[in-house]
Amino acid sequence: MTDENLTHRIRFVSLSEGSLEGALIDLMNMPEVHRYLPLMTGPFTQADYRDFVTAKQAMWNQVGYGPHAFVIDGQFAGWGGLQPENGEADFALVLHPDFWGWGKRLFKAVVAQAVQDNVFTSLTVLLPIERHNKNALVRFGFKEEGKVDITGKSFVKYRLYLS
């Protein structure tokens, strides 16, 4: 099955959809996911969920884009998409381990929507410095730009030019 056919199995859903609350809280607290989120310092609680959804909805209200929840074949798969980061569109992706093989297809779906809906000349990705596997980013055409510090945590910034 081609990637094009597979993308029809993906739905972008608002993070504020109430039925996703428990699944999103569970995802953010999974040890295998949590270790890739260096800005999270403790358990992700119901209060954190409310703050998270409020902050992500504010992005939509302020700049007209932001992250989504991803539903694949009717199952919550994670969240991500483009979100504003220092005036740029930054790609984020947090997936349930059952869907870790879907990153490329989700990235393509997000970029296709972004190009259709907005005018972006480039996208960035901030990869935690502890993550040594940058191969997927390089295959997509991202170029390393250097290190960025966010609240005391180090990330490597990558950029993909769209034109």
Main features:
single chain; 6 helices; alpha+beta; 163 residues; Aminopeptidase; 7 strands; 3-stranded antiparallel sheet; 4-stranded antiparallel sheet
Account of the 3D structure:
The protein has a single domain (3-119), classed as Gcn5-related N-acetyltransferase (GNAT) (Aminopeptidase, 3-Layer(aba) Sandwich), CATH 3.40.630.30. The chain contains 6 helices and 7 strands; from the N terminus they run H-E-H-H-H-E-E-E-H-E-H-E-E. The mean pLDDT is 89. The protein is 35% helix and 33% strand. Strand 6 (143-150) and strand 7 (153-161) form a beta hairpin. The chain has 163 residues and is an alpha+beta fold. The strands form 2 sheets. A 4-stranded antiparallel β-sheet has the order 1-2-3-4, with helices on both faces.
How would you summarize what this structure contains?
The protein is α+β, with helices and mostly antiparallel strands. The chain is built from 6 helices and 7 strands. Strands 1-2-3-4 form a 4-stranded antiparallel β-sheet, sandwiched between helices. Strands 5-7-6 form a 3-stranded antiparallel β-sheet.
Ordered list of secondary-structure elements with their pairings:
Blueprint: H1 3-7, E1 10-13, H2 21-29, H3 31-34, H4 46-63, E2 67-72, E3 75-85, E4 88-95, H5 103-117, E5 122-128, H6 135-140, E6 143-150, E7 153-161
Antiparallel strand pairs: 1-2, 2-3, 3-4, 5-7, 6-7
Rounded to the nearest angstrom, the distance between the terminal CA atoms is 28 Å
DSSP strand tally: 7
Give the name of the CATH superfamily: Gcn5-related N-acetyltransferase (GNAT)
What is the N-to-C order of secondary-structure elements (H for helix, E for strand)?
HEHHHEEEHEHEE
Helical content (DSSP H or I, runs of 4+): 25-40%
